[in-house]
C-alpha cells in the first residue's frame, strides 16, 4: 500500500488522495513503472519529463527519477536539456526492443495504475454513507414518481442498510424507474483510480460510459492525480449477468484488462434488470450472488487463472417481472434482504401520473381527455400500468409531428395514440360498387 492510510476519511474526501513523494509511495513494482514510461516514450513525438509526467499523472520529480533509471539502463537517451522538466528523451534500439516485448504482453498505455491494496482500502473507506439518508432526501429522489408511502419507507431502509432488494411486479409497473432513482438518494462522491495493478497486470477501471466525473475543483493541496472523483455509480445490467465469478475482460487488440461491471459498481448501485430472464436458472444465479452479498467480498480471475479478492460494496437491486415463487422458496428468498412487490396504480394514482407527465411535456391536460382514457381502459377491461401515460403521450407527440400540429390532447389524437400503442387490426374497407366488378373477374377466371 502507498501512503493512503496516513489520512482520515475526512481528509481524503476534502483534500483527495495524498500525492506520492517518493517512488515507494506509488506502491508499484519499478518494472511496471519503467515499462509504462517506455510505452509513453514510444507513443509521444515530443517526449519531455513534463509531458510524460502529465500522461502518467505522476509528479514531475518522480517521473524524472524513472527516466534517469531508464537512461542508466541504456534504454533511452537525453536529446536536449534546456531547463528543469524540459529535458527531451528518445528511445535507443535496446529501448525499442524492450517496448516491443512489453507491448506484446501488456499493451496498456494510460495514467499510472494504483496497487490493488490501495483500491481495496479506498473502496471500503468510502463505501458507507457518512450519515443516514433522511426521508426528505428519499422523497426528493423519487419526487417525479407516484409511489405509496409504505414503499418509500422500505426503500429508505434498503438505502440506509446498503442491503439488497428484490423488486417484483408486472412489466410496466415502474420497477426499473424505481431502481434507477435509488442511487439518487445516495450522498457523497467517490475517489476511484484510472487503473489497478495486480500481479504485474493492469486493469483499466475508470469507464466514462459508466462513471460520471465530478467537475475538478482546485484542491487546497496537490493530490495524487491517478485518482479522480466521480458520483456514486449507477450500473444497470441484464443479459450480461453470468453464473461464474466476474471475469476481467481481456482485449486482444489493446492487450489489457477491463474491470467487470461488478467492480465498477462499488460504492454505488447495481441494478440487475429483468432478473430471471437470463439463460441461467434464477435459483442458480441467486446462489452465485448470495455469498458476495453476505460477505461484502467477491473474487476476480485473470487469464492465467490467478484469483484475487475485491470489495463488493454496493446496493444491489434485483428487478423482476416473475413471481417470487418462481425464483425460490421462502427460506431462500429471506436471504436476499428486502422485498417489495409493485402493484399496478389505482385510477387516482394513474391520473396523477398522467398529470405529471403532461406537465413535463408542457401539454394541457383537460378532464375530457382524462375521462376518455379512463373509459377506454374500462371498455377494454385493460389493467393500468404506470408506464402507459408517458407512452401514450409519446404516441400523441409522434402523430402531431407527422401532421404538423402543435402538441395537444384531442379525442382523435388520443384514439389514434391508443390504437397505435395497444394495437388495432388494420383492414381494407370494401365499397359496395367494388363487389360486382370483383364477381365478374372471378367468373371470367372460371
Can you walk through the features of this model?
There is one protein chain. The chain is elongated and about 95 Å long. The mean pLDDT is 87. It has three domains: 29-110, Orthogonal Bundle (Arc Repressor Mutant, subunit A); 128-188 and 232-342, P-loop containing nucleotide triphosphate hydrolases (Rossmann fold); 347-422, Helicase, Ruva Protein, domain 3 (Orthogonal Bundle). Strands 3-6-7-11-10 form a five-stranded mixed β-sheet. The protein has a five-stranded parallel β-sheet with strand order 9-12-15-4-16. It has 446 residues and is α/β, with parallel strands linked by helices. β6 and β7 form a beta hairpin. The chain has helices at residues 9-15, 23-26, 30-43, 49-56, 60-72, 93-105, 116-127, 135-141, 149-161, 175-182, 261-264, 282-295, 324-327, 330-333, 347-360, 367-380, 388-402, 411-422, 435-445, and strands at residues 76-80, 88-91, 114-115, 164-169, 189-193, 195-198, 201-204, 227-231, 234-237, 249-251, 256-258, 269-272, 297-301, 307-311, 315-320, 337-342. The chain has 19 helices and 16 strands. Helices cover 43% and strands 16% of the residues. α3 crosses α5, α3 (30-43) crosses α6 (93-105) and α17 (388-402) crosses α18.
The amount of helix comes to 40-55%
* CATH topology tier name of the largest domain: Rossmann fold
Largest sheet, described in full?
5 strands, mixed
Provide the β-strand percentage band.
Answer: 15-25%
Which architecture of the largest domain does the CATH hierarchy give at level 2? 3-Layer(aba) Sandwich
Determine the structural class based on helices, strands and strand pairing.
alpha/beta
Distance between the termini: 92 Å
Query: How many β-strands, per DSSP?
Result: 16
Total individual domains: 3
| Top-tier CATH class of the largest domain | Alpha Beta
> What global shape is seen?
elongated
Mean pLDDT: 87
Oligomeric form: single chain
Spell out the CATH superfamily of the largest domain: P-loop containing nucleotide triphosphate hydrolases
Major β-sheet strand ordering:
3-6-7-11-10
Rg on CA atoms, Å? 30 Å
